């Protein structure tokens, strides 16, 4: 997704007064409006994002660090995780040759909801949950009404071993949603992210690419 669509998506996340995570009466959850003041709060520096951890795989002390910026609702990001990422993981992450960092980009409300589920199990479950999220993106992201989308995300959470109480607590955590949005804004601005997936490799930004190209960049960095 390009910069124009990223801006429109970010405005959609924070600009809707009637923004609710869910009003599902079956779960007994109460509708919340977690991002109603997120834009004003983060621009005035009122949101403390230090509580949001980077999600990391591989060797923390590796000479090469790759930071991926991706959206859970981005088809190109899903394709990357279904293809290129598996090769990257086998060749470089699992062999401790690189440090891999995943950072969420929020184009829309479903992206925030998916992130709340992905982070619900902590760092231990995060990458397993995002694998499920990307594999079923075409199902949950196109489920229709917000309540239907959230219900599909609940299914993913349960499949990942989260219990219902934990899922509801995470989905209703307005403070976390607001903090994640501010965190995304800080990171995106700092790294000049204008499309997804984007990659910061040892400080240099790259757009989406084929695995062979990515591998060449990594090998060059490792040799340097």
UniProtKB/TrEMBL annotation:
SUPFAM superfamilies: Thioredoxin-like. Pfam families: Thioredoxin_4. It comes from the Bacteria. CDD domains: DsbA_family. PROSITE patterns: THIOREDOXIN_2. Belongs to the thioredoxin family. DsbA subfamily. May be required for disulfide bond formation in some proteins. This is Thiol-disulfide oxidoreductase.
